[in-house]
Specification:
Distance between the termini: 60 Å
Strand order of the largest sheet: 6-7-5-8-9-10
CATH superfamily of the largest domain: GTPase HflX, N-terminal domain
Number of domains: 3
CATH architecture of the largest domain: 3-Layer(aba) Sandwich
CATH class of the largest domain: Alpha Beta
Number of strands: 13
Shape: elongated
Largest sheet: 6 strands, mixed
Number of helices: 15
Radius of gyration: 26 Å
Bound molecules: guanosine-5'-triphosphate, magnesium ion
CATH topology of the largest domain: Rossmann fold
Length: 421
């Protein structure tokens, strides 16, 4: 993937729409987040425009008068690119670019651009390229030559300035190659994961809104040095570290890519396999930025992604981070009595968090007394791999065993469990 370095800071105008039922405040907050995304992408916001509207105009997204206003604002600010907070159809994008005489893109393209800049591993790059190509494929046709030659701008960079001029079929071929490549990575990961299952080490994942402090928290808890930055989507690659609990027990904790409102579904699709670690976790640490103006909205956005990756049923421990920056936590504590409040940077609350994690792990494994007939060597072998055998005696009737099992594997041995003990 070739990324073209920008030698200038691109000037951007943001456009948001308030539809019936939207709160104007929420739209403003969404635009502020869009501005943060622009900053992360290395460009400057020079203007903002919002319109109250009943429905999207199929041709231009905005109404006629507003398009004129946007054109004037674009000239006045001499912006390079206009970014819409809502998704544009390929036709709207083309029409707007024609009228405005400059690049028009949407939030999805901007997020994809940031992912393209931040991808480091081979797998991360393949995932982002797949998402970008899926996004661009329906947008290829009819894009003006002059615009496609304006290289190096947000939404036009990334894999293949030249690839974009190739025909559809070659892009589709590339998409299926990337899918195969990603399948191979996933298969390898499953082999590693199955050896982990055999050793019955519990696993947890850090999930949460981008920039909430997930990587900072894994560093604080596991004494590791995962990359941390005050930018959105600093982490794209999943990293797994071992964490030791107060009782000396260990478990595996994974740091994952952050989520955001309106996360492009192309990205969720192509990151699906790296996010399998989340679905297969014994529990999640859902990290929320305690300084966020809208913690409820951010948590909702995270849960929506969890549903999309089929991880909504994994147990979760809610962790509010960055409490060193918050003067009054009383409202949050009242709203979320079950949450743990920490500062990954200053260390507050980490002991409490470790204790809660240890309790969660203990809760999920219990000791059972089992009787297995001598003829059922298969069940015994299974028990060896799925649980932890604490003691075993063999009698004429069979094996008498005490074993530690988690709720997931209990079902396999239910008929052998002796209810007393
Ligand atoms: N003051 C303060 N800052 C924090 C704390 N935890 C993290 N930060 C800062 O918040 C920013 C984001 O931290 P990261 O750990 O990279 O956040 P993340 O959730 O991994 O973000 P992405 O990987 O980009 O989604 C960095 O500038 C951190 O230094 C905290 O407890 N207190
Ligand atoms: Mg991170």
């Amino acid at each position: 993937m070739t990324l073209i370095e920008r030698s200038f800071r691109e000037k951007i105008v943001l456009v948001g729409a308030v539809f019936p039922g939207d709160s104007p405040m929420a739209v403003e907050e969404s635009l502020t987040e869009l501005a943060l995304l622009v900053d992360t992408a290395g460009a400057d916001v020079v203007g903002r425009l919002t319109q109250r509207m009943a429905a999207r105009d199929p041709g231009y997204f905005l109404g006629k008068g507003k398009v004129e206003e946007l054109k004037e604002l674009s000239y006045a600010t001499d912006c390079d690119t206009v970014i819409f907070d809502d998704e544009l159809t390929p036709a709207q994008q083309r029409n707007l670019e024609k009228v405005l005489g400059r690049t028009a893109i949407d939030r999805t393209a901007l997020i994809l651009d940031i992912f393209a800049q931040n991808a480091k591993s081979m797998e991360g790059k393949a995932q982002v390229e797949l998402a970008l190509l899926s996004y661009r494929l329906p947008r290829l046709r009819g894009r003006g030559i002059s615009l496609s030659q304006q290289t190096g701008r947000i939404g036009t960079r990334g894999p293949g300035e030249t690839k974009l001029e190739e025909d559809r079929r070659r892009i589709q071929a590339r998409i299926s190659r990337l899918k195969h490549q990603l399948d191979d990575y996933a298969k390898n990961r499953r082999v590693q994961a199955s050896s982990r299952v055999a050793s019955r080490t519990q696993t947890a994942s850090l999930v949460g809104y981008t920039n909430a402090g997930k990587s900072s928290l894994i560093n604080a808890l596991c004494d590791s040095d995962v990359f941390v930055e005050n930018k959105l989507f600093a982490t794209l690659d999943t990293r797994t570290r071992r964490m030791l609990l107060p009782g000396g027990e260990g478990f595996l904790l994974s740091d994952t890519v952050g989520f955001i409102k309106k996360l492009p579904h192309q990205l969720i699709e192509s990151f699906r396999s790296t996010l399998e670690v989340v679905r297969e976790s014994d529990f999640l640490l859902h990290v929320v930025d305690a300084t966020s103006p809208d913690p409820h909205g951010q948590m909702r956005a995270v849960r929506e992604v969890l549903i999309e990756i089929d991880a909504e049923n994994v147990r979760e421990l809610l962790v509010f981070n960055k409490i060193d920056l918050v003067e009054d936590l009383s409202t949050l504590r009242l709203d979320f009595p079950q949450a743990v409040f920490v500062s990954a940077v200053r260390g507050d609350g980490l002991e409490e968090l470790r204790l809660q994690i240890a309790a969660l792990i203990r809760e999920q494994t219990k000791i059972y007394y089992l009787k297995i007939a001598l003829s059922r060597g298969d069940i015994l072998a299974r028990l060896h791999s799925e649980g932890e055998i604490l003691s075993m005696t063999s009698t004429d009737e069979g094996y008498e065993i005490t074993a530690r099992l988690d709720s997931g594997s209990l079902g396999l041995f239910e008929e052998f469990v002796v209810p007393s003990l």
